Amino acid sequence: MIQKTRETVLEIDLGALAHNYRILRSKIGKDVKMMAVVKAFGYGSDANEIAKKLSELGVDYFAVAYTSEGIALREAGIEKPILVLHPQSVNFESIIENCLEPSVYSEFVLREFIKTAEKLGQKEYPIHLKLNTGLHRLGFDENELDLVFDYLSKTNAVKVKAVFSHLAASEDWKEREFTLQQINKFRKMAFKIIEFLPSRPLLHLCNTSGIFNYPEASFDMVRSGIGLYGFGNDPEIDKDLKPIGTLKTIISQIHEVEKGESIGYNRAFKASGKMKTATLPIGHADGINRQYGNEKAGVFINGNYAPIIGNVCMDMLMIDITGIDCKEGDEVILFGGPQPAPEFAEKGKTISYELITGISQRVKRRIILE
Length: 370
Fold this sequence. Notes:
The chain is of the alpha/beta class. 30% of the residues lie in helices and 23% in strands.
């Protein structure tokens, strides 16, 4: 039984994580590998605990955004292959020293990584070639492939272990034609690379929405980030997944407020009548930003909805508890349980990704085991 909290915590349910992993696995072929994306502290949760659990479950690969995130996983004992999605040249030696696999997405990155690998005496060090198929963020264009082949033909310091790209709108059926164009472009570019290479690399393209909506594009491996954490960018998909995170806090103090009195900075809220308010020990420094204030969003106390009133402070926020049976020290749920993160995020005109990855590291993480 989960105990009531006595402080601000983000509870991370590893049982829900395992459920999501199995659902995602069920959508792909038995021979298709699974890469778990654990960047940004495991989408705002706890990357080390997430990676350890997924390793137990049999995940094949991990992906992080930056080198420091990969090193942290290695230091936590993670031995599975780790792809660094956005490596920087200043970190290339650290990537090799920690057996990380870089995404190589431009001539500069390819040239400089080969230099580093040669300097460190590497032979066939694994790299992932990133292709630009329409997102126009990172990646080689089709007209640059001959340049890539030229660099690769002049060294044995690196080996193309995988070729990948990223879908721009796989969750949006209105963009189905564009997504199919991306898949076809990836297939065309990838097979041109395969014809050049002495051995066949892994191909990976699908993200979470791609896994559900474009299973024909699974290739050799798929990548899931947000799906592992319980969100599928689609209400129908969300029904099959379980959010792993619940953000909780407590009531610090209760006030009786008279009509006409103001609450919080800049007197942004004024009572229209006699009311009761509660102050919570969480604010925009914890990831609950000012956009949620002034009754845009709210929280749940003992099953009752309580709107956030006034401007959110750095370390605190205030809520209207008029008519709610509660006391100081009672537990408060911001998202999870009765209010899923996408619902809370929508009230702040944002998305669940921004909300969950923005929860400050000063918020205590509490691991809930299966």
